[in-house]
Amino acid sequence: HGLANNHVYCPGSLGKRVYLGTLGGISVMEEGRIVFSWNTANSGLAANWVNALAVLGPKLFVGTYGGGIQSVEGDGEWTDYRELIGQFEVNPNAMAVDSERLYAGTLDRGIQVYNGSQGRWQVVREGLPSQNVTAFAFTSDGVLAGPDRGVVEIRKDAF
Question: Distance of CA 88 to CAs 11, 81, 104, 125, Å?
Answer without folding.
Answer: 21, 11, 11, 14
